[in-house]
Amino acid sequence: MLPKPPTVERVAQIARGFGLDLTDDDARSFQGLIAGIMPLYERLESLPEETLPVSYPRTPGWRPEAADNPLNAWYWRCDIRGASEGILAGKTVAVKDNICVAGVPMMNGSALLEGYVPDHDATVVSRILDAGGVIAGKAACEDLCFSGASHTAATGPIRNPHNPDHSAGGSSGGSAALVASGAVDMALGGDQGGSIRTPSSWCGAYGLKPTWGLVPVSGSMPIAYSIDHCGPIADSVENVARLLTAIAGHDGWDTRTISARAGDYMGALEGDIDGLRIGVLKEGFGHPESGPEVDARVRAALKSFGALGAEIVDVSVPQHYDAPAVWTGVIVEGAAEMMLKGHGVGTNIPGFYPVTMQEAFARGFSTHLGDASETVKLVLLAGEYMNQAYANRYHSKAQNQRGLIRRAYDAVLESVDVLVMPTIPFTATRIPAADVEREVYVDLALNMQANTCPFDVTGHPAFTVPCSRIDGLPVGMMLVGRAFDEATLIRAAAAFERSTDWKSN
């Protein structure tokens, strides 16, 4: 398709939208100037396009019947087999449905993208297949991933395998539910405010948000460049280590990974933790919304570390309380510009742009935005208001605060190896009724992130490990480490896993 120059009337309309008053002669003049650069766009359209590779054969797969999808955790099923050997040989993997798998439908939980079929494999998908993994399907996720619970997906709520009346967590709820129910060995999740760790905590899975920039997101649908993370959810610490080994490392398409430093994650599994210094973060406990029993269960779990020779000390990072405000400033305007107004892709970032996804999302956005979830509408309206009323002032202030908060955690992590706190201050909430008030719907989608979103702001690695149950619902304990020191988190988590039966606590 060749680009066409605008009409004079369209130029005048665009100008009015910016408060620019053009005379008819002005509009005709600018129309001619714009028409003059169209040959360059025509040349651009004719150039061959480099894309992400598709290396293994596959069929489109199938949409599972309800009887085969009791938790509503699958969006689509497939069976894509890669290399015959590798660190993931024989392991089944679910791919969160904001990550492209060529030839397999993708909707990112949203009616706005329904019907889109990618023509490329995301880098992490290619790496899984190269490592011998089997892609078993696309895991359902929240509408454009903007919810920490599991009731906003266009395909219906995703249910917790421990109690189907309760949320699986979000936005990677399908990934965690499939892992925790035994449907797959491991899954890919995404995390911008807690979306790997929340569902892993609520479903009783192991979920690791890597250091920002360790795992590429090329070929995925982003939310906001500066806080997008991709990482593993698995049924054991070993499988987390295996999947992270396969997907971590520099990717030429993703500038976030320029400084990536992958570690020996498999070697970390057997290390002891004698002498490891574990800091119990004061500000991670006792939030207004905290369940006292959740706090108590996490503190009790810490005794296992002490019995294994770790030194347990209390630490404080007062800026932990500031991080949610900074996160809000970053993500609300960032998501409105990149994910929504940017047609699911955004602009001006060196990297891979999935053009067909951009076009599909733009069509959905322009024709049936009303079908989006209440959380997506809130982000669009709030982000655009802050843009128009305050010229993105608060987004800029939030970005400028990130270094200060990061250094506050870094200072404490100079004296301890790991920080510990509850992942989520309470266990999984009930899935709300379909006709619940908007205010309740939104609150249930966003009210759990006090301990998770700070580490999307700072980029530190954070690993949720199941440590107990309350009334049958899992409790997650979060381990936070130094940048690119995922190996220490894996070492600590593996030692805890070996020494503790969390289901009996």
From TrEMBL:
GO MF, one example: hydrolase activity
Keywords: Hydrolase
Domain Amidase intervals: 82-489
Origin: domain of life: Bacteria
Task performed by this protein: Hydrolyzes indole-3-acetamide (IAM) into indole-3-acetic acid (IAA).
NCBIfam families: PRK07235.1
Protein name from the UniProt record: Indoleacetamide hydrolase
Species of provenance: Microbaculum marinum
